Amino acid sequence: MAKKALVVDNDFFFVEFLTELLENRGYETIKAYDGKEGISKLEKADVDILFADLIMPKIDGLQLIKFARRRFPMGRLAIIAVSDTLIEQMDDVKDIDSDYCIVKGPMEEMTQKINDLLNDLKDYPTLESGHEQIIKPGKLYPRQATSELVEERKFQKAVFDSVGIGILVVDRDARVMSANTMALDILNKPLEEMLNQRITAVFPQEGRSRLVNTLKEVAKNLDLRRRSFHLKRGSTELKLVASMLRMGDALDGWILTIEDISS
Predict the structure, then answer these.
(1) Region 229-245: what's the mean pLDDT?
(2) Start-to-end Cα distance in the chain
(3) What is the pLDDT of residue 126?
(4) Hey, what domains does the chain have and what are their CATH numbers?
(5) pTM
(6) Which residue has the higher pLDDT, 8 or 152?
(7) Of 213, 16, 3, 18, which Cα lies nearest the Cα of 125?
């Protein structure tokens, strides 16, 4: 039986390149074009190897890898992080939790490096914790503009996680895309357990209809900037505020803030 590979990258041409390479090696290949779609594919199929770009819209590669680690015990799934910003993130590689990291580069050199990697996986199908290796196709050097973008992204993530109120980011299909540290603390759930789950599944049954009605209300009335309501979760009373997630003129989902007002 052919082994299965999942390729997740928002670069269509890179997905096609990697798919052709893997299929030539005998892999059955599944494609996804962002981390959210990648999680949906992992929920439906068991795979042997995952290639995940690190920077993607909606759910990024780091979140996808965390989800994959939770779903598949260590060693059952080979996880390869792929990015053209890895050179600028060398100090953070240890936080990626992949088995290999591949720096994107010239296709000809990448072909050889990935084929060598697949040979390695064929010889050693079960990976041990801490096996992480960094694969660079040729001589690559950090780029100033990319380094600045990476640092700005890290800063924005730090702000998101430092806000003293819980924040959930919800997609247009009402599935969770992200949550900050405070939201995870209030809800007492790990992020990978909530990713791509319906927002209604995060809260108790008795509060779900009110939550749905509130999301609908702010979506239908664009002049309504926000709508707040209270919800009981066990012995905890929560204050939730729903507002639309706007990307320019487009409505891309909801922002839901959460505050524990029990005390």
Answers:
(1) 92
(2) 58
(3) 52
(4) 4-143 (3.40.50.2300), 163-260 (3.30.450.20)
(5) 0.84
(6) 8
(7) 3
Phi-psi region of 197 (alpha: psi -120 to 50; beta: other; left: phi over 0): beta
Is the confidence at residue 202, as pLDDT, over 60?
yes
User: What's the order of all strands across the beta sheet hosting 133-135?
Assistant: 28-32, 4-8, 49-53, 78-83, 100-103, 133-135
Pairing between β-strand 250-260 and β-strand 166-171 as defined by DSSP bridges:
antiparallel
Q: What is the mean pLDDT of the chain?
A: 88
| CA-wise closest residue to 206 among 184, 228, 233, 183 | 233
Which residues is 218 bridged to in the sheet? none
pLDDT at 226: 92
Strands (E), the chain: 4-8, 28-32, 49-53, 78-83, 100-103, 133-135, 166-171, 176-179, 227-233, 236-247, 250-260
Structure tokens at 152: 């700005």
Q: How far is 202 from 199, CA to CA, in rounded Å?
A: 5
What is residue 84's predicted lDDT score, i.e. its pLDDT? 80
